[in-house]
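Bug #77: duplicate submission created two jobs. Keeping one. Sequence:
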Amino acid sequence: MKNKTENLGKYIDHTALKAVTTVEDIKKLCDEAKEYNFASVCVNPYYVEMAHKLLVDSDVKVCTVIGFPLGATTKEAKAFEAVKAVADGAQEVDMVMNVSAFKSCDFKYVEEDIRLVVNSIPREICVKVILETCYLTLEEVKKASELAMYAGADFVKTSTGFGTGGATVENVRAMKGVVGNKLEVKASGGVKNLETVNQMIKAGATRIGTSSGIEIIKGEKSEKAY
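Kept job's structure:
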């Protein structure tokens, strides 16, 4: 894919997930997403219905997060949350893998957790699985990517932005090496400049989660945390 600045918008999920995000922040987020032709806005479930209404006449999709940010809610709760989000207008859901179960080597539960969300919502809804790679070894990143693929997800995603670290080229490359052309890869967390975006795309990412999308496209320095 081309990664020229003018084509970057469709790589970016314009993100606002902080606890203190306000209605005005969401209005601004959606206006910016339309202006810069971003792939989606990524908002907490509380704001899905509002974002859907603001973006109904645009090509910008509404993405939300499920089991966020720890991934430690039950699989039934995640499925319910996903169903409600889709009913409110979400077209993409980024669910957090159960990292606790994974680190306990309960891989069967991890796969069931993902599959239940995938099977609970219409197939056309894009499901991205957040691995929270900062807590995983490289071999664990590969194993988690396999589980997401077996469970029927559409993407594997690096990070929530709320862990101890964000996306790295090494992890993106490892994830892509496992999923190949069967799934796509989203790099998120700490991606705040054009150089890093290009590195992630070269490593195999087809989507970038960031709150610094405008600064990236303009080639400006961003001080934002996510």
